[in-house]
Amino acid sequence: IAHIYCEEVFGVVGENFTFPVKTDEKEGEVTWTKIFIITWTKNKDKVAEWEWRNKPKYFEHFHNRSVLMEDGSLTIINLKKNDAGTYELQYWDSERDHNLMFKLDVFDSFPEPKISCNSSGDNLALNCTADFQRPLNYSWKLSHDEHNSQSQNLSIPLEKVNHTMKATCIIKFSQIERSSEVSLIQCLP
């Protein structure tokens, strides 16, 4: 009996996308098993295959647009809208057959975040926004500081702001990440 694993994944047109393959996990550690045969399909049509000691073979429009690694991971280069679909990885190791399934959705674009700032009392208030059809993960990084925040908003005491400080807002969705930076000197009153 094969273990079926299904994950919803996302990419952006024009970018490279790698399926997040973990071939064997034990107590939080990834241990690689010797894989002998790998087959990837999209909507039941063959995409790529590899047999131990041979070079990978690619099919249809994935020829010259994908890279199959010996650990089973598949990277599609220069994603296209029609790459969306249900992908299945079947691999055989020395123990048994395995199946992993992924539903890939391809978005037209992924926005750069916009940063706005103003002073409010004794603090500098920063806000990061991005117009996207799915919920995003937001985080902040400050130069000269190891302060990281996992929020859309960031408040910094004015006495800690110096003329060389910069703030970077990072937005992330699936494997997609964008960032914008602002010099805090331009935010001061």
TrEMBL record:
<protein>
    <submittedName>
        <fullName>LFA3 protein</fullName>
    </submittedName>
</protein>
<dbReference type="GO" id="GO:0016020">
    <property type="term" value="C:membrane"/>
</dbReference>
<keyword id="KW-0325">Glycoprotein</keyword>
<dbReference type="InterPro" id="IPR036179">
    <property type="entry name" value="Ig-like_dom_sf"/>
</dbReference>
<keyword id="KW-0732">Signal</keyword>
<keyword id="KW-0472">Membrane</keyword>
<dbReference type="InterPro" id="IPR015631">
    <property type="entry name" value="CD2/SLAM_rcpt"/>
</dbReference>
<dbReference type="InterPro" id="IPR013783">
    <property type="entry name" value="Ig-like_fold"/>
</dbReference>
